[in-house]
Specification:
Blueprint (H helix, E strand, L loop, with lengths): L1 E7 L3 E12 L2 E12 L17 E13 L2 E10 L31 E14 L2 E13 L16 E12 L4 E12 L16 E10 L7
Antiparallel strand pairs: 1-2, 2-3, 3-4, 4-5, 5-6, 6-7, 7-8, 8-9, 9-10
């Protein structure tokens, strides 16, 4: 089990527990995140404070089964009703069991997510390949509920398809990813709650060159 602590003086404490239980090709991952307000949450005016609630909690469970070179997985998570899960996005991607690329759960409370997917790696000659597909649903409070939905994100389904390859010992890498998002059910959402959030397709094509001098 791993446990990590993050503290931002005067704003919040965050503790992350992550446990992985492996048996043959099976893997179960358990996650628990607890946040507590530190001091005034970032500002003496409670309406301007970054961390406005007293606490928040995240519960996550993931199961994966590896068959040959392919890892099949499913995951579920829930952020309780004590408050929003908060941390600066500048800290990097969300290492949550229900994370998908181009999706966010930070800033959400009372949110349940379920994700299914498959990913794999294989080698063809001197070229390494990796790819996968995943789909998930994110059931959130209404976009207008700022207390539990900081970024006014509607409940949605997201599907990702990605493929990458690397050659020359990892010096050259190519990544392609397609993301498709649609709202769940018959929500009444405004243009501001739709644009760049749902009813959208996002395509990424990335080439990365890393000289061997800078490779780990």
């Amino acid at each position: 089990m791993t446990a990590e602590y993050y503290g931002l003086p005067g704003v919040f404490h965050t503790v992350v527990w992550d446990e992985k239980l492996a048996h043959n090709q099976h893997l179960i991952q358990l996650q628990y995140i607890r946040q507590e307000k530190w001091g005034n949450g970032g500002n003496a005016d409670p309406y301007l404070a970054y961390f406005q609630q007293q606490r928040s909690q995240y519960f996550g469970l993931k199961y994966s089964n590896k068959v040959g070179d392919v890892d099949y997985y499913s995951a579920i998570s829930h952020i309780d009703g004590n408050g929003k899960l908060l941390f600066p996005r500048e800290w990097g991607r969300e290492y949550l069991v229900t994370f998908q690329g181009r999706e966010r759960q930070e800033g959400m409370g009372r949110t349940t997510a379920i994700v299914f997917g498959a990913s794999g790696k294989w080698q063809q000659g001197k070229v390494g390949h990796n790819g996968g597909v995943s789909t998930g649903i994110y059931v959130r409070p209404e976009p207008g509920n700022y207390k539990y939905n900081k970024y006014a994100m509607p409940s949605n389904q997201q599907t990702n398809v990605w493929w990458g390859q690397q050659w020359k010992g990892g010096t050259h890498k190519l990544l392609a990813m397609l993301v498709y998002k649609v709202p769940l059910g018959s929500q009444t959402i405004t243009a501001g709650q739709t644009i760049n959030k749902v009813d959208m397709v996002n395509i990424n094509l990335i080439y990365r060159y890393q000289p061997r001098l800078f490779q780990k």
